[in-house]
Amino acid sequence: MIQDVDEGLRRLLGESGFEASGVDVVFDAPTKEWAARRSVPTVCVFLYDIREDVSRRGNGGGEVYDEDGHVVGRRTPPRWFDLTYLVTAWASRPQDEHRLLTQVLTCLTATDTLPARLLGGSLAELGLQVGMDTAGTAMDAPAAADVWSALGGELKASVGVRVRAPLAGITQAVAPPVTEGLLVRSADRRDTAGPEQGRRLRYTEVSDPGPEGFAGPRDRGPAPARRRRGERQP
């Protein structure tokens, strides 16, 4: 799922003309060592925080179908995660970096979701909306200053981007579909005890065995008379 979000962001930024103008879009950690190796204008999209949105946990599940429409598995509900990115621009002059950041803001703030046409992998398979919040003020994630401190670099202008994406549930295979009708077979149960072969069981208390040897209903006699309440039995 994470790599699919990365690819969606790369494609979205690519549509704004970065790649055509010779600007690299990378997902590396912007450490001092990385910055020293950089040689071309670069937009760095660094993922630094992953948190589950527990308020969107669901129950139940869904069915997985094959190309013929048969159920081949059952999948637990997806779980949603907030992926927080730190987007920075790297160039030889601050003015060029600010121009790149402006281009980033123009591209990312133009939409609240990652367009479906840019999604691949599990995100395309699920077909769910992938939300995006750019430069929001209520993002529950470490501050940019803390991130730069952890990376060992100097504080730099950056844009915070939070993407809310689903992680596909666990799929369990089911039995293959029934393609043939129910076949019932019967076998003769034969008594091989000699001349008594095929004899049917009868009640010995019955005077009339009934047709074809079946036992008829028992003669239980007249039904007993009902006693009134309080009446003693003779």
Write a structural description:
With 234 residues, the chain is of the alpha+beta class. The chain has a single domain, classed as STM4215-like, CATH 3.30.2000. 21% of the residues lie in helices and 22% in strands. The protein is built from five helices and eight strands. The protein has helices at 2-15, 32-37, 94-108, 121-126, 144-151, and strands at residues 24-26, 42-52, 62-65, 71-75, 79-90, 131-134, 159-167, 171-173. It has a five-stranded mixed β-sheet with strand order 1-2-5-7-6. A three-stranded antiparallel β-sheet has the order 3-4-8, with no helix packed on it.
User: Low-confidence parts lasting 5 or more residues at pLDDT below 50?
Assistant: 196-201
Neighbour order of strands in the largest sheet = 1-2-5-7-6
* CATH structural class: Alpha Beta
Average pLDDT metric: 78
Structural class: alpha+beta
Outline of the structure:
About 20% of the residues lie in helices and about 20% in strands. It is an alpha+beta fold.
Notable traits:
234 residues, alpha+beta, STM4215-like, 5-stranded mixed sheet, 3-stranded antiparallel sheet, 5 helices, Pvc16_N, DUF4255 domain-containing protein
Please describe the topology of this protein.
Elements: H1 2-15, E1 24-26, H2 32-37, E2 42-52, E3 62-65, E4 71-75, E5 79-90, H3 94-108, H4 121-126, E6 131-134, H5 144-151, E7 159-167, E8 171-173
Parallel strand pairs: 1-2
Antiparallel strand pairs: 2-5, 3-4, 4-8, 5-7, 6-7
